Structures are given as C-alpha cells and as structure tokens.
Amino acid sequence: MRFGLRARVALAFGLLSLVIAGAVSGATYSAARWYLLNQREDSAITRAVLDSRATSAALASGLDPVEALDQIPSVGTSQPMLQVKGVWYTSGVTVPPDALPQSLLAVAARDGGAQQRTAIGDEEYLLVALQLPTGIYVEVFLLRDLDLILTIGGWLLVIQTMIAGLLGVLIGRYAFGRIIRPLFRLGAGARRIASGEFSTRIPLTKDPDLDPIAASFNGMAQSVQSRIQREQRFSANVSHELRSPLTAVVGTVDLLEKNVEQLPEREQRLIGTLQTQTARMHQMLIDLLEISRIGNDDPPLLESVDVETLCLDAVHVRNLPEDLVSGSAPVIRTDTRRFERIVGNLIDNANRHGGGVTAIRIEHNATVIPEVVRVCVEDDGPGIPPSEVEKLFEPFTRGVAAKETSGAGLGLAIAIEQSHLLGITLRVESADSGGARFVIEIPLIESDIIDELGGSDE
Question: Which of 21, 217, 376, 406 is the 20 to 30 Å CA partner of 245?
Fold first, then answer.
C-alpha cells in the first residue's frame, strides 16, 4: 500500500520529531543518571567517613564493637559493619558479611578505603569500606530509591518522546495542509475551467512565493478564455454570414422541388441531391450557432420537470413508438430546452450511426449520495471502439462506420457541452446487446426531493 503525499509528509515530520526527541531524552537520561549516581556516591562516602570516625572514637574510648556500632545514628536504609580481629559485627541482617566482595576489602586494607557498586541478590548496593586502626569499617547503601527515580524518569522521557512524535505527525499534517492549500485552489480552478467556467481566476494572497504561480495560472486562464471566445465569435460570425445566402439557396431548392416533375429525369436526381445536401448544411449551421452560443447565452432556466415526459416528447417529435421509453424517476430540476436537446441528439445519433435506437431506460438510484437519475439511450449498432471513445464528443467527429451523408458530427459535441452547463454527466458504454449505451446521470439535490413531495415553490 502506497501512502499519499500528505501521509508521507506527516510521517516524515513524526519520525524526525521522534528521532530528535529520542536523542534529547537519551542525553537527558544519561546526564541525569550520571549526576544522581555521583551525588549519591559523594553523599554515601561522606557519611561513611563520618560514621567510621565515630566508630573509631567509640572503640578508642573502650566500647566494644557492638556498642560502637550502636552509637551510629540510623539514617535511611544504610547498614554499617565492623570487622575487628577477623570477627564481623553488624547492626542489621540485610546484607550478610560473607556477601561482601573480597576485592573491596583487599583494596580498602591496602589503600585505606574503597567503594564499589554491586548486586547482592535482587538489589543493587553501594559499598564503602574504610580501614580503621582496629579493623575495617564497611557501610552498605541500598540504591533501590535511586533506581526507582531513574526508572520513573526514564519512562517519563519515553512517554514524552512518543508524544513528541505524535505532535510531529500532527504538525506535519497541518503544515502540509497549509503548504498544499494553494495547490488545491489551483486544482479546483483547473477543474472549473475544464468544466467550461473559463472566467475562473485564482485570488492573489500577497505571498511573494505563491502569487507568481497564481498570476501565471490566471494568465493562462485568460489566454484560454480569450482564444475560445475568439473561436466562438468566429463560428458565430461565419454561421450568421452563411445563413442568409443559405436561406436563399434553400428557398430556390424548394421552388425547384415544386416544379421537379416538369424537368428531365437527370435534373430531378440532381435537384434531389441538392435538396439533401442543402438540408444537411442548414442543420450544420444551426448546430454551429448553438455551439457558439453555449456558455454565452442566457444561464440555464431551472424548473421542475418529469424525466419520463421529456423523453416521451423527444420520441413523439421523431415519430418513434412510445414503448421505447421505460422506467420512471422523481421530478428533477433542470433546463427543459437544454435537456430535451441532449436526449434528442442522443436519439438522432443512435438512428444515424447506431442502427436505430432500441431503448430509452429511466433509472433511479436511491442508494448513493446524492441520489442519481439515469437516462440510458441504447442502439442496435456495432458499439464504440475503445480507440474512439475519448474523441467521440469532439466537434466534427464521426465514427469510422459513419457515412458522408449521415451528419456533420456536431450532435454529441452539443450534447456534452449542454450537459456540462447543466452539471450532469454524459458518458458512453457498451450495451448488453452489443451496441452503444449513452448514459445521462442527473444528481438529485435537496430541492428535487422537496418537489417530489409536493413542496415546489413554482
């Protein structure tokens, strides 16, 4: 599984924080342990020296070893021991004399004193041995309290290290969000431009690093918008200029058609061909004018409409049987004229290129959010090759099996542009019969559901 960029940045921040916090915690623990142990050793040696002097004075005053040890004040968990003439005396039984390391006693006898940390049983002790005129004085200090302090401190440092790693993840996620937010705005702007909103611009934030990127994006969007507007104006002007002479040609052809029976057979065939081509050119001009107006004319006029009624109207206009339409759906809000043009163009495309429309299915999917109404137009043709799907909705694109007289290839281009304007989805897929299925998906908004329940405000 590959993590996204946000997760990778957050994990990198967390790992870096964990490493830094771990290094600092380790150094802190080592320094604290070294300091506390040294402090404990210094205090233990100081006390052992004082206790040994008190013991030596008591022995010099004539007290026996047991009485001399009783003179030592009991502080903490230390245990004093005294060896006189090879016999050990002690005021406690925590550590027996035979458990004392012989190396410690040998060094103390040679050098006058020695200290050593050692484990006796399950506990760790600090042993301080001092040579007296009458024997050897040993005091045993339990290090349990120091170990407990170091253990608690170590676990606190571990917890703090883990918290630092978690905070690093959260900071990394937040920092990534702050850094990547301008890119999200660029992506949203690019998607809006791709959907046809060419006036989209990215607002400048007075950031010296981000504003040049936003300005470049806005310049690109302005250039794209200007170019498309020039193309639309050119198409509209050409179509308008051709419309007047074409109207005259159509009138002349109609006049000739009325008197075609008075002409020879050869001229009759020529007039028939001229009429077909003239009608085709006339429809092409109408389509070109509509393409040039999409996005520039009036905004969509939304109203509550019944999808089944619209599909039946499209079927009636083309003198097709009503049983082609099946299914039902809730009332939707859309632009009636534009939606009828989308459905009509899909039906015309099926009749011209797909062997005829075979079914117009209306489906309602209430299991998704938002709910979706689908209109599927199926034909009896050979289907759409995968290589042609991407360019199928481009202007003047026709399938490889299309005939020269079967249209100019503008119907699907108009349908896709109108669907973008209405905020619906238009796609093509393979039908169960082997032909093509064009699917219109209309998301239901909250107002649609209100209308269905009888709460329309119109």
Answer: 406
